[in-house]
Amino acid sequence: MAPTPLLLLLLLALTLVSAAVHPLDPLTAAEITSAINVIRASPLNSSASLAFHYVGLDEPPKPAVLAWPRSAPPRRAFVIARAGRATHELRVDLGNGAGRVLSDTVRHGSSFPTFTPDEQDAASVLPFQYPPFAASVARRGIPLSDVLCTTFSAGWFGRAERWAGRRVIVVQCFVAAGTANFYARPVEGVTAVVDLDAMEIVEYEDRVDPPVPKAEGTDYRAAAQRPPFGPENKPVTVVQSEGRGFEVDGHMIRWANWEFHLSFDPRAGSVISLASIKDSEEGTFRLVLYRGHVSELFVPYMDPSAEWYFKTFFDAGEFGFGLSTAPLEPFTDCPANAEFLDVDVSSGDGSPVRIPNAICLFERYAGDVAWRHTEFGFPGEMITEVRPEVSLVVRWAAVVGNYDYVIDWEFKTSGSIKIGVALSGILEVKGTYYAHADELSGDAHGSLVARNTLGVYHDHFFTFRLDLDVDGANNSFVKSRMKPVRAAGGPRRSYWTVEKETARTESVGQVELGSTTELMVVNPNKKTRIGNEVGYRIISLGGAATSLLDDDDYPQRRARYTKKQVWVTPYDEAEKWAAGLYADESRGDDNLAAWSQRNREIENRDIVLWYTVGIHHLPCQEDFPVMPLLTGGFELRPTNFFESNPLIRRRPNKPATRLHCSLH
Amino acid sequence: MAPTPLLLLLLLALTLVSAAVHPLDPLTAAEITSAINVIRASPLNSSASLAFHYVGLDEPPKPAVLAWPRSAPPRRAFVIARAGRATHELRVDLGNGAGRVLSDTVRHGSSFPTFTPDEQDAASVLPFQYPPFAASVARRGIPLSDVLCTTFSAGWFGRAERWAGRRVIVVQCFVAAGTANFYARPVEGVTAVVDLDAMEIVEYEDRVDPPVPKAEGTDYRAAAQRPPFGPENKPVTVVQSEGRGFEVDGHMIRWANWEFHLSFDPRAGSVISLASIKDSEEGTFRLVLYRGHVSELFVPYMDPSAEWYFKTFFDAGEFGFGLSTAPLEPFTDCPANAEFLDVDVSSGDGSPVRIPNAICLFERYAGDVAWRHTEFGFPGEMITEVRPEVSLVVRWAAVVGNYDYVIDWEFKTSGSIKIGVALSGILEVKGTYYAHADELSGDAHGSLVARNTLGVYHDHFFTFRLDLDVDGANNSFVKSRMKPVRAAGGPRRSYWTVEKETARTESVGQVELGSTTELMVVNPNKKTRIGNEVGYRIISLGGAATSLLDDDDYPQRRARYTKKQVWVTPYDEAEKWAAGLYADESRGDDNLAAWSQRNREIENRDIVLWYTVGIHHLPCQEDFPVMPLLTGGFELRPTNFFESNPLIRRRPNKPATRLHCSLH
Fold first, then answer.
1. CATH (one of 3.30.1330.120, 3.40.50.2300, 3.10.450.40, 3.30.10.20) for B117-224
2. Domain named Copper amine oxidase catalytic: which ranges (chains A, B) (predicted)?
3. Per the CB < 8 Å rule, is B231 touching A651?
């Protein structure tokens, strides 16, 4: 039968719709459903325990993405499912109506995927059906109804013989009555270990019972506060009299001289792709960052006791950093001029879940300048030229249990990209007998932040994967060292000069940050008119700690890459997660440091830069009950990328006047 | 005669007026005039060459300041004058109508004060009356009328025998035609040395003559730009619907939970004193910072050639950082909600000069949060509490020749004080034969930023003097080192703990920053209820470079303190200027490092913390013709100063709504 005109029109419409889908767009709720339906229709569905731990886009190969919109690669889902104590990596074709499972790779051993929220919820209530737990709580004189529990990853500590390849999680509990602060009142000393596949408690210990800290002073809700109230300030609002300056076109964002693709991944959170800046001289967009996102967040605590030694979290690989998204609150999390985007993720049973306001975009004006100069040198004349700094911020926040993390990607018209990490939320505290600092003896492994409350020492290592493609795929990594030189003769006796080293292999690309070396990613195949290699340099903006754990310690083997802030690897589509695809109970054999041991060539190739923002955290009383923002980050700054400062030719906005505003 | 009632009333009124003057208020224009008149009436006036290099407040002793307003110390001026090749330090009483010179200390040798703008102007035109200069310019084919000259401090390079205690300055020249960029087109190779007291050229050299860089691409004025124009963005304005939240009461500033005194010094620029934060629990203000300001800015260039070796500037001590103030431009340098303050300084002849809009104050809202938490732990309930971050910024900018520096003091309701330094303005460039990077050979001492234009390598070291009085005058300096520990037994093999060291003497207070040591100033006499010493810690926010010059090099001897970022000294009112009171041609015998060699006791005393923000600058093409802002700074963050996070009890503003605004 020949196609009817209507059918042809329908096919055309479908083609147009599919052309509008960018190859890097995250899965829609419909696509999630479609992928799950395909798997549900496969033999795998016969497993009673089938659960979906990761449902995301199967990222198309780079050439296919770069060929878009001339051609569109097939839409595919990548799914990690757990069934019958095995892990399945599934690739599912989503195209052309009837999808199909393209591949199903089965992983045994310790290839444990991120936890699903559902199984964590299920594990958290197990103690309430476990009689010894009721006894522990009763012995402490706490009503059982006041108690809630939550989960902590158990890590890997060479205890294969004990739990024999079982996927386990630790459950610990808190007195949640009388406060909104879930974590402030630990039932310290009680630890249950749950086999997640069997969903049963396999180990239980009630070891010590220091007092439960009081509820007083732990609540952070406005409604719970009593006088004397804290400082107040007059409201300050951002107003854009001509509206927003950015455009959201599907997942493409365009603003000033930038355009980029904004996506979301259940494991990584916000993902920036194809970030390109318009060269106003050339009139073309030049690629800077092919893809950038959080790859892992390693948070080890520094207390070796039975209840704490295992607290060495991999927040992306174990909990799903994207799955931990906290909806952003308009007017407080993001300013009045922000636009909010929702995202769709999958729950453990495969049904799509929408997270509202998961990402916000706004133009930031902090009152700062982009550049300025006042010239006093011309007689009888003072010249002043100033341009205010307005940037575009992409904000996303994740709350992994107690901690709140805010990740900002800030795009500047100068060509800089600033990546900011901010910490807030609640300390992970330990119940203690100590009520006063004078009582502390020996190593308490933390600071006393309230009576009977220790803020345990810990670190945060945010590792970003940055597939920089500076003006093209093939780049090199250059270290410029400032070298002191003894001056020969002359009044001046010393100065410094610069020694450049281009990293030929991965071992040279591993760098511990210091103030005397500048790090750059250059494109050796593109030069400015006066012959400098075009590039971007990497500047630390605070948070340059590295791990202090011993190399042979189990968590450090799993996060070996945290001993250097910078690693450079050749692009490999399989290398996305710094702590390995399966971080939970990982053995350290599939991570950034392990990959790099091959010492591959990285000069004039498609390379990936890994940057870790590290923070050692010694808690103090101000961090309690919710800590004020602590920030770190870094800047990718154009360095001989442009022929000159690209902002000089930016025409200033019309002379500003004071706005008259009212609340309608 | 008994006083009449009218006279009594008048006396009372005068007393009230004088009580309103804070002891730390800067000299008014009337007081400057009064001080100069007193000196003009003294025998010193007979010197034909009398010039005034510093006219400022003679800072009263701390006890007298702290006794205010119960009693007011006498108003006194401190004046540094130059007369007959000698330097005079004068203290002038300004009180009760007829002032008088209280003391006149004469300094000979190399006690050379900051240059006056007048004498620099005079020196800058000397070449035009010097025939060899006209010849040099003519030989280069440049019309003399296109040329302008300016001054550079000559430094001290052990050449006492050559210039024999004469106060000299270097004059170099630029082709200023065809551009507003004074510095972009050096007449490289021509150097004149001027004796400032004699005001005559004492040395002249015309050594090399590389091409003068072209004017094209050097102008930064909006009016001079031609298409294609750079990126544009929609306007963003800050609006405060209920008005500003801060109060300017004379020189006292009150905002939210902060109050402080804001002053200005011709050498230091903006000065913050008596910064105190209200403890809402106690209902009282607690002192944090008795006085803080820029003490010195050392900027050494890294080119040992004849025209460049001496370029090792001490911007505060040689040029007067405050005297270099650039008036801030409303709506661009500071946002629409800013308030501007003028300052009064003295010119070389003693007449007062008003600098308009020298300082601005504004409430900053960058769209960020102060703290947040989302709690997913309570079944069936999601709790979200977020407080936006609004802070108060005190901004001041100085332009020392080519460079623009923006100094921000940012006060946060959390108790933090962030000190930000930002660099913009114009690179000091060197004319060169090189037109392309491929031609570079040997050590060029800089980067090629445009044809025939080298951006010479250099550093910026901003040294702040911070007389912290955390909750009282007597403080200690504590270093908390994170020390790796091998775990005994147990699954965990390692962790870190904290070793605290209280600095007993100055040598222990000298610290090179690192990520494994936290630095704190504590008050060992005040503790929180749970027994922690109240304190503030110091956190680097970028810019942690130290000097790489050799210890025996002349500029490094003068700025020896730049090898460590942190120094702690016992309070001494004579120790204000890190490079010494007389920095120009100093010998390194009166500076922070020299004072500290006494290794005085600093434990539980009134101490001063010196913090240096250091930036190594390898110029790139984007820095030309005006560089985009480069920032560094540090944070003073309360650490066990409060019993808990002081922002928790801050009531949120009324729910925000979108404002409707118009331009009237």
1. 3.10.450.40
2. 237-647
3. no
